[in-house]
Amino acid sequence: MEADLSNYCVPRFRLLDDSQIKRIHHSVLRILDEVGVRIYHNQAIDLLASHGARIKANNVVQIPSFLVEAAIASAPSSLVIYNRDKAPVMDLGERKIFFGTGTDLPKSIDLKTREIRDTKAEDVVASTIISDAMPNIDFIGSYGLPKDVPTGLHYIRCFQLEAENSKKPIFFTAESQEDLRVIWEMAGAIAGNSEALARHPFIISYSEPTSPLSHSKEAMAKLIFCAEEKIPVNYTPALLAGSTGPVTLAGALAVAVAEALSGLVVHQLTNKGAPIISGVAATTMDMLEATVSYTSPEFRLTHSAYADLFHYYGLPIWGTAGCSDSHFPDLQTGAEYAFTLLNAALDGTNLIHDCGYLGQGFVASPELIIFADELIGMVKRYIHGFSLDTDHLALDVIKHVGPGGHFLAEKHTLDYCMQEHWRPAILNRKSLPNWLKNGKKTVNEKLVEKALEILQTHHPEPLSPEVKADLDQIWSAAQKKSRR
Amino acid sequence: MGVLEDIYTAVVDGKVDYAVSGVEKGLHSGISVDEILNKGLISAMDLVGERFGKGQVFLPHVIWSAKAMQAGMECLKPYLTGSQHEKTAKIIIGTAKGDIHDIGKNLVAMMLEGAGFDVFDLGVDVDSETFVQKAVQENADIIAVSALLTTTMINMADVVDLKNQKNLSSVKVLIGGAPLSTEYCEEIGADAYGVDAMEAVTKVRQLLNR
């Protein structure tokens, strides 16, 4: 496709031109140098100071441009993520797009009763099994945050349940360095040992700075641990324009990027070349409801802008899409999923998370992972574009059929129908009479049916009994430790 | 069993040449016409229809399977006995007077051929006289009329009326097309309405009571 670009028509989208990228980057560098960031982690402050950063009162560190440029240069520009079996499955970099769920949804819409209730550990298993079955879901998050597992242990338990129910890469959160270490031990047990894990990473740790311009002790500790152990880490702020950042999108973007890059500096100073995925989420706070919008058009603008910026930096990029501010699967859900997924794909962000989200990051509804998968398929087909070569221009066939004939029975049609045309698995394409005859099913009904069917029929490849026993042992030890 | 399997696979995969060579080989090696027809050709199309119903294969695949089936049938025809011939009922097909939209009609014709029927395609813009005349001439079992427009679908009624005038009660009329419905079918006194090409085949089988 890349080699033969003249023959290929692909949708191309870019928001910023080169001079705009440089202007934003320059502003980011000035924020870091003139304002600085507050860091609640002494080791990180010392590290920055020893490399030429200026330490100010109240844990504020001003970072000169050369440190930022050096970190951008030393961080890898692409990153291969493997599955549980050490097969490469995500080559994060350039404009390659991969999709997955997110983490931490405290509420779940019950698949059978449709009530909104607290998320349980069994929901994490269910969403993992569904994600495992979906061809367009490339990586797996816990999706839910189970209430029936004690705080301090729930991320460990989530990771264990995910690893047991899918071999796809796992994108995970941890509360602190302590549970991160336990999760890393589990991942090491699966990979064989920590060196094997570092060579063929199948996990991505998520951690975030706190806007505006602050790094908590826990976030820094996790970031440094990941750098030391070469655990791929995603260190990206979630800034709210108008409250935790400037109301204007340009200002919000510059602050958020400064937060991400200051994290990158600490990460690369800790261990040059350690794997990191960068980016930001700079969205709006709703000025009437005081809520966080996951889908505002402004969020999509900053998403496009930072994508251009981080492509310029040459870093693997984190993205957000396939999510909705609605609390129940409805028209809003469909509109927001489609809008955000198409946007993220056009932006060419690499690790696109939050697919299947509802309720501004509070509500899970597992059948929506299937919905996201369907729309990702549609978007991928669009992004793929079409060929203009001789055979695709089809002049021979056009001559052969001539005016008034038909193309249905042509070999050309048979040869290309599968590759040229995408078909939905869930969205309706039935004629009205056939739809009426087949029970008048809405997409919502079909999604729930499909989710229940997958949970009955899809059996993910299990861990070996030995590895499973290792994880059980690590889990028991973690439980004992937390009771103390 | 090898040859029958080859024929079956050729039809399922839509390989016209293999279907022909398979049938010829089968006839040479003394496999009964009945077996070639039922176990080779028809059962293969049944599987293709089933896969199509499940969305596992698409229209072009069904069409090429139908082509393979039809090519196999052509080789078999000289050897068919009377009762076997009945399986290949004769169907006259065309679009209604005034209508030149024929992609749906073509699709139905291909599906019917694929199901083993003898299809006489009169093309587009066919008046009722031509339909009925051809039906008499070929001793046909069914007249199938298609229309896309509400302005042309009314001409389907003429076909039914003319056929009734001529007392051709054994000839059934099947109608189809986007604006049609079961209600309209009843209204004009046609014998069956097929919602799509696959259902057209089902309806033909029902009309023939097979």
Helix share bin of chain A? 40-55%
Annotation field: number of helices of chain A: 18
CATH top-level class of the largest domain in chain A: Alpha Beta
Alpha-beta content class of chain A: alpha/beta
The CATH superfamily title of the largest domain in chain B: Cobalamin-binding domain
Morphology of chain A: globular
Main sheet strand line-up of chain A:
3-4-2-12
Strand order of the largest sheet of chain B: 2-1-3-4-5
**Kindly state the mean pLDDT of chain A as a whole number?**
96
Strand tally of chain A: 21
Structural class estimated from helices and strands of chain B = alpha/beta
Q: Which CATH-level-2 architecture of the largest domain in chain B? A: 3-Layer(aba) Sandwich
CATH class of the largest domain in chain B: Alpha Beta
Task: List its traits.
heterodimer, A: 484 residues, alpha/beta, TIM Barrel, 2 domains, four-stranded mixed β-sheet, 21 strands, 48% helix, globular, B: 210 residues, Methyltransferase, Methionine Synthase (B12-binding Domains), Chain A, domain 1, Rossmann fold, five-stranded parallel β-sheet, 11 helices, 5 strands, 60% helix, 11% strand
